[in-house]
Amino acid sequence: MLHGNGGCNWIDSTIFDTEASDMSKQQRGFTLIELIVVIVILGILAATALPRFVNLQSDARAASMKGMAGSMRASVELIRGKWLVAGSSTDTTVDLADGTTVDVAVLPATASGVPLATTNGILRAAGISTTDYTCTGTAPMSCTPVGGPPACIVTYEPTTGVVVDTAAIAANC
Known about the structure:
Structural class: alpha+beta
Strand content: 15-25%
Number of strands: 9
Number of domains: 1
Shape: elongated
Oligomer: single chain
Radius of gyration: 33 Å
Order of helices and strands: EEEHHEEHEEEE
Distance between the termini: 73 Å
Strand order of the largest sheet: 6-7-8-9
Number of helices: 3
C-alpha cells in the first residue's frame, strides 16, 4: 500500500526517502585530501609496527633454539633409559621404535648410554635437521640456526649429556 507524505513514500511500513537517494547520486567517491589522510595514517601505523615485527624474528629464532635444546634433553634421557633397559653395558647403539639407530657412548661411565655428538648420535635422536641448524664440534657440540647470528647457540656435552641453552635468548638470536 502506498501513502504520500512530504518527500517520503511509505510502502508496507518501509520508508524510502527520495531526498536521500538524490544526495547519494551527487557524492560518489573520496576527495584527494581524504585519501592522503588515510595514506598518512597507514604510513604511521606501519612505521610503528615494523620494529615489532623485526624483533619477532629474533624471538622466533630463540624459541626455535630452546625447542631444539628441549628435544636434545628429552632424547638424552630416552636413549639413556633404553640403553639401561637393554642391560648390556657394551652396546654402542640404541634402536628406537621407528627403526632409527642412535650411536651411544660406552665409556667413561658418566657418558655410558648417552648419545654421541654426531649426526648418528644426538642429531638423529633429537630429529635435528642439518638444513635448519649448523652443528660443529664433538666435545662439546655447538649448534646455531642456519643463517642466524653465531651468538645464538645451544651446546651439547656428550660426556655428560648436558645441554646448555643459556645463550639462546632473543638478544643473541
